[in-house]
Structure prediction request, 223 residues.
Amino acid sequence: MSVAAVVPAAGRGERLGGELPKAFRLLGGTPLLVHAVGVLRASRHVRLVVVAAPADRLAEVAALLGPAVVAVPGGASRQASVAAAVATLPSDVDVVLVHDAARPLVPLPVVDAVAEAVLAGAPAVVPVLPVVDTLKRVDAAGLVAGTVPRADLRAVQTPQGFHREVLAKAHAAADPRDPVTDDAGLVERLGIPVATVPGSPDALKITTPFDLVVAEAILCRRA
Prediction:
């Protein structure tokens, strides 16, 4: 079976601040997007990487990533960007990994584990971590309405892996008025089971300036 990866990278990243789109912010002197694509290309399973980028930055993406990576215009939402990238994949691609550029430091073993779980027969797979914080439900007045048991809760990361037809069916059935925050959420709405593999603390999502500080510390530790 043939595996491709798509990277939605058209978001602005307003919570991160700065003038550059999030995927082009630097981490250790290198854009987040380059880090994220680099680990996908290092996987022995991934044959092709497609990046959905801002339409006005396609030439920059090509210069950063080279001819081995395909760049396509992203959409107005993450969901639209993923759909646009998947639509460009060759017909012989059977498995699709969807990875956020905002998770630049996912370890290679996590990428391989997700791909291998789909190749072994799972229709959809996500990497997860146990939730360690105590979680509270809060009402509209800001008062605690209850404590959420965390034993069965997991924090979900990317890359998420799918049989191509499952991902395509999920996106075709998606309601743009009711968006989800990840592709596995679309698959869940179809009643299709989603398997899990262990994630990694290194695969943190860069959302705020503090996350960049943590990511820089991870880079220093790796070095």
The domain at 2-124+156-222 is CATH 3.90.550.10 (Spore Coat Polysaccharide Biosynthesis Protein SpsA; Chain A). The mean pLDDT is 95. The chain has one domain: 2-124+156-222. The first strand starts at residue 2 and ends at 8.
